[in-house]
Amino acid sequence: MKTFIFLTVFLLFFEIPIFAQSNNLRLEVYLSKNIFLKGEQIYLNNLLINKGEQSIKSRKLKPCDLYYKVKIKNSTGNIFKYLNNIQYFRDTALSLLLPPNDTVNQMLELIGNYSPIKQNWTSLTTKCFFPVDKYSIYTTLETGYGITSSNELSFEVIEPNGEDLSAFNMLEEASEYFIKRDFKTSARILNSIQDKYPKSPYSLQALRQIMAMYTFTENPDEQKVGYDAAMKLIETSPASEAADYALTHILARTGKILTTQEIRKNLLQKISISHPNTEIGRRASNIIKKYYDK
Questions:
Q1: pTM (2 d.p.)
Q2: Is residue 125 part of a domain?
Q3: 27 and 103 belong to one structural domain
Q4: What is the band of 16 on the pLDDT scale with cuts at 50, 70, 90?
Q5: Strand (E) or helix (H) holding 131
């Protein structure tokens, strides 16, 4: 009798999650293109989709090998494993609530997370890239209902030529100065890549590399260099996947530049107004609604 009373009280005061059928959960991946230059960053978009009419509680998509796995193979069957030594705590199967017919999108950089490393410099794509080859890729997620697998994609990495090769050589030169911790010279070369070869995919990578150099600095002048690179990336390539990382850098790594909430809000408003039909513009608008329009 006491057990029955305890269970009754427990059910009254605590919500018991009701799980939808596991076959309503879909995992899909896509790439913005399927041919990449050597050293060009590859962004994998992961979609977790609830196809059902009930909310589903699931694990989150995190780049780790505990329960979310990215399977990359080259033409000879060699598998590229997750490189980061950070081990996340295993979250519960209830950490993500996905409403009916809703989607969660998680973007993942493959270079630096799964590509071979040279000299352990994961932020330098000339030292950490996928070799020229053809690849296949898919993902799996242990959702709490079992393992869900995504569709499989293929992509190819090719050698740069022409202006792209010139830009890549400059990127390599900048990387060597980065390793020597001559950040000013490295930043000067990286900025010149964007000025000389704005249409090359390496121009975006050059700006990302400047941001990486000043990720953890508390020096206002150095933060300004990273901030300027991030803003330049957003202004020149607002529809690019790299723009999302640029906005994250601005919001998380430039506290000496964006010193007040008003300055941060004004910047977000500028981005949302200037780029209304892009993911970066929508993200800026959503941040304003969530944190500033209360």
A1: 0.85
A2: yes
A3: yes
A4: very low
A5: none
